[in-house]
Amino acid sequence: MGMWELVVVLIVGLIVLGPERLPVAIRTVARWIKTVKSVANSVKAEVSEELRVHELHNNLKKAEQQGMQDLAPELKQSVQELQDAAESVRHSYKSTENNKNKD
């Protein structure tokens, strides 16, 4: 939106809403825009994460088909990431089990 279009919108808003309600309307619209941007960024992050997980899954399938030998660097990295994630889950599971046994 250009500067003149913004000026026209503000003048029309001033005429329609009046000087008392225009600032409130501007703040409300700004909040809506902020909320929409926040939701869009969150959806974008979720889609990116799902695509990364899908890529890791495909790379793991390729690695299994190759017998986990002579893997391309990106396949090795994917397998390592999956192993690290599995180890962190195992570690947190063990610490949870140890805490339960102490109680």
Descriptive account of the structure:
By secondary structure, the chain is mainly α. The chain has a domain at 51-94. The protein has helices at 3-65, 73-102. The protein is elongated.
Explain briefly what this protein structure is:
Its main location: membrane. By secondary structure, this protein is mainly alpha-helical.
List keywords for this structure.
mainly alpha, 103 residues, elongated
The helix content is over 70%
Uncertain segments: none
Number of strands: 0
Structural category? mainly alpha
Listing every helix as H and every strand as E from the N terminus to the C terminus, the arrangement reads HH
Arithmetic mean of pLDDT: 81
Radius of gyration: 27 Å
How does the overall form come out from the CA principal axes? Answer: elongated
Main beta-sheet strand count, sense and barrel state: none
The N- to C-terminal Cα distance equals 63 Å
Number of helices: 2
The percent range for strand residues is under 5%
Membrane topology: Single-pass membrane protein
Pfam families: TatA_B_E
Region (Disordered): 83-103
GO biological process, one term: protein transport by the Tat complex
Helix and strand topology:
Layout: H1 3-65, H2 73-102
Helix pairs in contact: 1-2
